[in-house]
Amino acid sequence: MATIKDFPRIDPITGEQGQGRVFVDPVSAQLFDLSGVRLLRCGVDTVRQLYRGMIRLGVLALFEKPGMIVEFAGQRWHTGRVGRDSGYQFKLQNADLGFVLLIKNFNAKADSIGPHLKIEVSPHAIDSLSPDRLQARMDYYASEILEHVEVNQCAVHLALDLQGWQPPADLVARMHCRARNHRDVSGINSIEWTMKSSVYGRGETSMFGSASGVQLCIYNKTEQAKATDKLDYWQSVWRRNDDPFDAECLDNYNPDQDVWRIELRYHHSVIQQFASGSTQISTGQLIDTRTFEAFCPHLDGLWRYGLQQFKLLHRPTYFDPFWSLIRDDVRVELPVESLMDDTEYKRYYKTAKGFSGKNVELFLGNFVSLLARERVGATKAFDRLREWECWPVIRDHYAAKDMGERAIYRHIRDLLEERHVRWGRAV
Question: What is the mean pLDDT of the chain?
Answer without folding.
Answer: 87
